[in-house]
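Narrative summary of target 7.
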Amino acid sequence: MCSASTSTSETLVTGSRKEDGKSREVVSKKEDEFGDLKSWMHKNGLPPCKVFLKERHSHDSEHRSIHYVAASEDLQAGDVAFSVPNPLVVTLERVLGNETIAELLTTNKLSELACLALYLMYEKKQGKKSFWYPYIRELDRQRGRGQLAVESPLLWSENELNYLTGSPTKAEVFERAEGIRREYTELDTVWFMAGSLFQQYPFDIPTEAFPFEIFKQAFVAVQSCVVHLQKVSLARRFALVPLGPPLLAYRSNCKAMLTAVDGAVELVVDRPYKTGEPIVVWCGPQPNSKLLINYGFVDEDNSYDRMVVEAALNTEDPQYQDKRMVAQRNGKLSVQAFQVYVGKEREAVIDMLPYLRLGYVSDPSEMQSVISSQGPICPVSPCMERAVLDQLAAYFETRLAGYPTTLSEDESLLANCNLDPKKRVATQLVKLEKRILSACLQAAVDLIHQLPDHTVSPCPAPYAPILE
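Modeled conformation, tokenized:
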């Protein structure tokens, strides 16, 4: 997967090292020697299929072009594009040779991604002796990039991460990176627990064989192409499928998925394709923040895109316990995360109002009335409603002010065809986030305008809910 201190490493899966003409020529000779990925698969049991590999130039002229899977003939919805036999699919059951051990390790120590990354890193040290050499070489070529994507922000520099300033995604990147580091510290323990791995590779233990940065690169590369199979055992649910991602493009409005069938993993297309068109698959109901972190792209037509507004009852409120009980009775927590889906911002704001009103109740007799009621009903005066809506509007204004650019400035940046690819995808993300927040702000303002004329909010309640 990633270069270690061996002579078998061709490229970094991801990273900043440039490829010169000589190294490209060497790689081309190796490809001639071994054939391309699809040829290797046919030699090892791939039945005839309806796809082939095409080449697209990289957005970075210093990097090699990338491959993608395209239709080799006209396809109709319902056609099987390809069926990859299980011996050509990498799962933990195959890696560890024991389903019980695989489930034990991933339940108590490491994620499936970490185990798969470790396996491919050791396989790469085998060089051409590894059965998986042609597949690993293809992953190296892709450098963790999808068909139209850049590297995951997990591999961006500090300056590049500043493109995400104002976005909660930036904090998610740091949190995910710290999680990868924690997994790295567990590698040696897993190495000795998994006797099959220890016996198979007579090398140094993981943390001696691979520096953290190399492990992180491998982890991110595996993350960008792993497939989550349904209706299989835990030891098979995460799979690396040659001809799967990143050679297949992800799209949020697609319903085609790689599916486990008897003895294989197959792809049934959900739409017609003309010969030569790239094949796409569904990436699951993921918001754009996850698409960027996992795969390095943003989907502007993502109906699953969403942001989170977190509200918390004030723990210093003398009536906190009563309010907490009322919130729980109505399906909410003392710290409640509200999901704001794109296109449904007004509904999300209206869903927040009962919870926020509860926080504004201050009179003990009013609180008793709320406790005795059968629903999420709080006594609401126009002045209290104005206070609640003012707090919401101020919250959304503050979040929008946290971005260093405006929506119009984002649009101007994206109109530049020479914009750095990482900055482009980051700008796409923050632009879409701002649209959601702006729609929420507009919804709050519209509700304020529906209040009786001259309604003025009172002084803020001393124990108003906390919005984050």
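The chain has a mean pLDDT of 83.
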